[in-house]
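User: I'm putting together a teaching handout on how multi-component assemblies are represented. Below are the sequence lines for each component of a complex, exactly as they appear in our records. Could you produce the 3D structure of the whole assembly as structure tokens, so the students can see both representations side by side? Please keep the chain order the same as the input.
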Amino acid sequence: MTSVSRRVSLFVTCMVDQLFPKIGLAMAGVLEGLGFTVDFPEAQTCCGQPAFNSGYPDQARDVARHFLDVFESSEAVVVPSGSCTSMIVRHFADLFRQDVPQLARVESLAQRVWEFSGFLADVAGADDVGARLDDVVTFHDGCHALRELGIQTAPRRLLSHVRGLELREMEPAAECCGFGGTFSVKFAELSGAMAREKIDAIVRTGARAVVSLDPSCLMQIQGALSRAGLNIRTLHLAEVLASR
Amino acid sequence: MPGEKPGVFDRKIREALSDARLQQAIYTATGRLKESRLNVVSSGVLPDYQELRTQANRLKQHAIDNLDFYLEQFQRNVEARGGRVVFCQNGVAVADFVLALAKERGARLIVKSKSMTTEEIDLNERLEHHGLESVETDLGEYILQLAHERPYHIVAPALHKTRYDVADILSERLHVPRETVIEKQTAIARGVLRQKFLAADIGISGANFIVADSGAIVLVENEGNARLTTSAPKIHIAIAGIEKVIPRAQDLATFLKLLARSATGQLLSVYTSFLSGPRRPGEIDGPDEFYVLLLDNGRTRLLADREKRQTLYCIRCGACLNACPVYRKIGGHSFPWVYSGPIGAILTPQFREVPQEPSLPFASSLCGACAEVCPVKIDIPKILLELRSDAHRHDPPKSQNRWEKLAFRAFAWLMRHPRAYEMAGRMAGSLAAADDAAWISRVPALLNIGPLRAWLSQRDLPPPPPRSFRQLWRQR
Amino acid sequence: MTPREDILHRVRAALGRGGSPPSPDPPAVRLRIPEVVIESRIASFTARLEALAGRVLRADTPGRAGERVREALGDRSAVASNAPYLEECAVTRFPGVRSGSTDRDQLRALCASADVGITSADYALADTGTLVMLSSPHEARMISLLPPAHIAVLPVTRLITGLDELFSILPDPASTTSSMVLITGPSRTADIEQILVRGVHGPGQITVVLVG
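Assistant: Of course. Below is the structure of the complete assembly, with chains in the same order as your input.
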């Protein structure tokens, strides 16, 4: 374990706050179980990615500034989303390219913001968090966690230590689920077709649950599974690791 | 955009999605190309793959940042070898040059090897309009020329055609008996095209690279038609975008290792031709005249932007198409111009003065698979984001996007005001069902509009939870 | 303004500078040439070319190489290049083999009707199974291109490791020839349904005789 503070701040993301609060509670539980003191800065809202990815960098910059204000004093920030983490640690710098003082704040904070599984692997040094889940699952690589943050082995290693759990890899695990933010409604049929491609890959594994690091992927996948009438559930990694 | 009436792009996407045979064809072909590529770039086979990508990116960046220098050096060296370089602003200039030369030499028949650059300027149509016969000689391109279609994919142009489609096209256009065996179809085309090669007055090729320190062009192919095009007729004209220049012949050691691997999963393509000038004294064959036409056609326009300039690094390997989950669903002909897939999505809006399809840069989930496989490391998602932002900046004031713009302003305001944000959340939460409610398949007609309707057209919606995370956290 | 001046002007304006640029300083050339013993080079070349459905034959001496070529030819007609090495192998003296042509039209007619084209090669690349052909008074472009089969005969001393070594030996091929062609296996296409077909426009068969 690297010598860092045992104190972490949660950035639960707007999606978890409003739609999937259980994921946030699960994440907090796992971190506390590892001995971390967890706080939740109440002024937090969103990272600004919806505006950034839709081509509104000015609006995204306003939201990003708010994020910087809220989390500036946090020693470590843990996020239950690869996509939001990537927005903060990789794309905030794009937003403040022209603004040297803000850029310095961004670069300093970016060092302290972690995607959940990355935090467990690289900071907490945890492989086995004592979880138990009797189920057959498959893992969906979220695009930004995988390709922008390079997170691939950490979640799999964590899953491999969950008692009773069998991981069956889907082929391909790394192809996009088709969510893509406003893409999912601007090109709804295309996005839906991509989701159904993903569903086919999931069904081929015979798994009964899909695990991912991103609530947005899970919303897309669960939405398509539910529409197809398939009895396969979706779980955030934190929910799996919080199972006993 | 939601609420807009479906345009051509939307219609073509819908058509492609509903064509089961086409879906199968695209998935199989791109899947095979993807896998072939993976087999030859893995660390076991090519340990320095990432170093080669970095070197290729640096070389391209350097060449583009010094484009004027290298174009002038290239011209000097071509002319020192007895060739000629002609700068062309657009497709009209290219056609005018070819037509004037053909007239002067009494040429009538032109053989062409595959070139995306000539597709870009509709060269065949322009030449045929003036009574010249211009024949595509790459098998896939030939089939498409007979069918009057444009390429479906940068390296697999006839990817969408089955052997039965090809049988129809050949028998109809060449008046030969219908033949469905692929080997025999190939032999038919070979026979027809062989006669064209031997009778042609002019050969027109593209160029995969133009080499500044040598005054050479480089052509990469598998069939041999580019070799025939550039060596059988007495006149060879190569048409290349100005961005194709690389500093030195030695840099090919980097680029050639990446190109064929990325394109088709070969270590090297079957034929790589390095051509400089007309045949030399004593050489037995080869052309007597050698021209290189350097085409702008919008390229200098996008050079001005430091970030988007990297679009010009593209070596047209097509790997991003095969990797792209959007291309694999909608195929090549849904795209508004000759370039398709991720690279087409960033090239088209920048090359063309009048945007062809304003929503093109938005047709991506930003998954990043394109950037991951790009052999010259073009950050395609980043450029898509810039183009999205540009698109909003250039929106006419009364555009249909103004609601979206307002919505994002409201979003940004709300996200900077946590209390208002929480209030808004509670209002939505008041619709909440029980804790373990099922996902929602439909909503009352009054609510079934805009993005919600679009979402529900494909998927179910999560039931809003009775309490937000922050409410639950306070209760802990 | 000529189109040339216009385009160069636009380029300079876009790059944000006035007149001619200073002489740029490109990234260092990247060539990595491994030490590979000749037997390994031969093994690699053979494996690569055979994987592409090419054939590789070995011969101890030029005389033996000639015999290999004669066996490979059978009763097919052939046109041979003017490479001195083919004469050393006696290939040019076989019945049914035409060579010595220095006339473009005559040579093209020969190539268009011959069953086999026989050449030497300036180099071969071990790690890809590639032949390197430089156009010259000894080697015409058409012989390795028009006939449906190609036989190349070369001494193993010309078998180098790969592209990097080639471009270190020939930093600028244009100073030597108007045409350098790298040939890696038989002509092929997969344009229809991704089905591999050999011998589209160029030779569908390729045989390399390594001598020594």
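A couple of points students might notice: The longest strand of chain A covers residues 132-139. The mean pLDDT of chain A is 96.
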